[in-house]
Structures are given as structure tokens and as C-alpha cells.
């Protein structure tokens, strides 16, 4: 199926200690608003993110699809060849890094172009969500997801392009509907006006997420990052790592996005095509229960 992830399901089930029986339990009864052909790979990601709690997992799956329906500006038209997404790729860096020794996935993002006029917030958030999905497509369920941001090219003028409604939807999905366990958010080259950034986003962040936030102002030592979170072997050379430069890694990952074009197109077709059917099926089951 084109809308399925590409990781090795059996390896992931064994690695994360998941149960086939629990995966099946997530399908019965059908969840309202969720496609009947949701894949076992995606279910495995949800189950792992919810610490193998089946009832909680079912709630998160429903939110995942609900959030996608209610935010078409962030989840529809995700063709990697779309000119608006290409514009993001040309002005920002998006890629995932190798899993850490602890098994965590790491996704990286920064602005490569400092001009605020080239920053389109909705499209940037859409592309960032595509990055998370691309990482999960390849790496599958993991003990945690680490978000790594570099604010080097961020200026006050970028804040004027932020949309409060989009921030609300961003954090709701990230905190309530993401099929991954958010482990930490590391901000490199944290700007002097980060308090203003926090003023905008804090109302939409759970206390748990705030406690995951780690700031590294410019010229701050990254030894703690290396020792406790992401070793040099998993970081770009720009940050004292052993991998290629950010620019090189970004260019390599552009090919990854393009290779997943069939997936992104099929995911939207699958998501939109079956939601009505599931709702009708669920209503019929409820009707039978009442009778």
C-alpha cells in the first residue's frame, strides 16, 4: 500500500516490545473517523507512543485524524513537488538524523535564509510535519522523538509572520495526536528575544512540554547535549558532530522527500476517502447495540 510506512514492522515490534494482539485490539470496534485500512505500521507507532495503553491509543488515533481534517492548510496538498513546499526546502533545512544510542529519533530544522519575506508560516509548519512523518516512515516507533532547532537566522521580523491559530493547531497535534513520544526540544543559538517567542507559544504548551525545553545561546558549550542526548556521531559537522554539514544533509534528504511523493499523495487519498465510511460503520454498530 502506498500510504503505508516503510520500516520493518517485525523488527519494530520486537525492539519496542509491542503486541500483535494489541494491534488487533485497536481495530475492534472501528474508531469513528478513522480509515478501516489504517496500517499496522501506523498502529504500532501509536501504540508505542501511548506506552502500550490500548484505550488511550484509540483516543489519540481519533485525535490524529480529527486534527488532520480540521487543519487542511497543514495536512493537505503535501506533494513534495508542490511549489510552496519547494519554496520551504529552498529557504529552510529539514532532515532527520540517525537514531541515538538510546534509540531516540532526532529531527532537525533551521532557517537557511534569514529574510523574513521568504518565511511562510503555514507552509513551514506543514513541511515540518512532513519531516516528522518522513522520519517515522523510515525509523518507525522509537523510545522518544527529539526535536533539534537552530535559531541562528531567526529575527524579530519572523515573529510578525507567525499565526496564532496555526500555533494552536501545531501544539494540539504535537501534544495530543502525534504517533510518537516527544522526548525533548533542544534549541541551538537561542536568540536573546526568546522570551518573546515563549510569550507567544507558552499558552498552548503543556507544562510537561515546557520541561522538555533546553536552550543553548550562541557560543554556549554543547557538551551536555553530546553527553546526555545526542552524541557527536549523530550530529552535523556544523555543531561539532561527525556527520556531513547541514547543507549537505539537507540536499540528501530532498531526495528522500521526493521518493516519498507516492506516500504523501496516497495518504491524503486514503485519509479522505474512507473517513465517511468509518463514520457510517460506527453509527450502524451503535444502532445495532441499541436494538
TrEMBL record:
Top-level taxon: Eukaryota
One of the Pfam families matching this protein, by short name: CRAL_TRIO
SUPFAM superfamilies found in the cross-reference section: CRAL/TRIO domain (SSF52087), CRAL/TRIO N-terminal domain (SSF46938)
Domain CRAL-TRIO: from-to ranges: 82-247
Signal peptide annotation: none
InterPro entries: CRAL-TRIO_dom, CRAL-TRIO_dom_sf, CRAL/TRIO_N_dom_sf
Name recorded for this polypeptide: CRAL-TRIO domain-containing protein
Organism, as annotated: Aedes albopictus
Gene name tied to this protein: 109415061
